Amino acid sequence: MKIAYGYDIEIECANETPVIALVDIHPTRRGDICRNDIPVIRSLSFPDRDISSELYQDKFGNLCRRFVAPAGRLSLCASGLISDSGMPDGCDTDAAMVRIEDLPSDVLEFTLGSRYCETDILSEQAWARFGRPDLGWWTVQAICDYVHDHITFDYLQARSTRSAAEGLRERIGVCRDFAHLAITLCRCLNIPARYCTGYLGDIGVPADPNPMDFSAWFEAYLDGRWWTFDARHNQPRIGRIVIARGRDATDVPILNSYGPHVLRRFDILTQEMASNADVPPSPLMNTFVQLS
């Protein structure tokens, strides 16, 4: 199957401001891209000004794009087409936890606390609720079930500073809050877990009436490989397109500016490209495809 994806983001800066954007598809999926998705960065306040960007890879293997935004309004747009297996997230209910002494060295940091994942605060609760001798797939799934039932999703209650412990206490949040709490509970049990962000459209499920956004989920390391889990939706999904992975949301902000900026527009597209003409296109489709 083919999935169209893209974004149209507009920000406003009071002064010339360096920016790092994590909006490029992750290297592990670059080979699946069928149509060019090079971002178009342009100043809306100074249309004749050229804005160049530099792409580099961070310590987690993510593609980061750095540029300097001039004062005023700036638009960052891209669209692409990617090939996908059409299969839901993988599953192996027999996958077992790997002992700490047997973990690869580059996986160890995903057992530790981080900015939004306070393992020191939640460790006792995690062991009391989920601790058992045979930790593995079903442990992670039990954590997802708990987080899914414990937190209520509400766009209007989004807060960029909310941590896992605060999400547990407040019982409300957005997809990143579900991921942070599940990641933290896994790490408390010495199960490596890492944060993921990317595109996730409503493929094979009823359409979500909320505005489309980048999604957050997590991966747990079991039986020598990373497995996808999603505490917010709590079901295998089709068509995830990874943009970035890290310890938590601190490592993978969509935009990180070295100075204040105001978000003026944020439109995201993720849509299966169906050959059946009875499937109506997204109203954003025409806008995005013109960029390619």
From TrEMBL:
InterPro entries: Papain-like_cys_pep_sf, Transglutaminase-like
SUPFAM superfamilies on file: Cysteine proteinases (SSF54001)
Pfam families in alphabetical order: Transglut_core
Domain Transglutaminase-like: 167-233
PANTHER family: BLL5557 PROTEIN, BLR5614 PROTEIN-RELATED
Name assigned to this protein: Transglutaminase
